[in-house]
Design brief:
The chain has helices spanning 60-66, 100-111, and strands at residues 2-8, 17-22, 32-36, 43-56, 82-94, 117-118. With 124 residues, the protein is α/β, with parallel strands linked by helices.
Amino acid sequence: MRAILILVPPGGGETDYSLEFDLPGVPNPGDYVMVGRPAQEGTEDFIVRRCWWQLEYPLREEASGSIVTKPGEEPPTRIAGVTRSLAVECEFALGPLSSKSHKTACEMYRKRKMPLKAFDESGY
């Protein structure tokens, strides 16, 4: 599933940056996300806050007009909508493998009195 990770400060707020991924499933609130980069030692660590789904469902008239049916056959009564996008909102957190630059960003948030979270070490 294609998703955009929207990375926000601890406690939420304006987007710091975003990254697009092909994910094997949909993360749940509270899940830990660790992003590694080839030229970086350590990871950028986040905790999922919520998912934002953008769905589209056709109007009845549009749906029945766009379905090809055999002569004399009625169009199906159940029409499926489509997923337009999935955004996964994640907040900065400290993890056991956090990179130096990620720790610096987290320290900046801590100095601003933002509620910085950390991964539960027993969960790693």
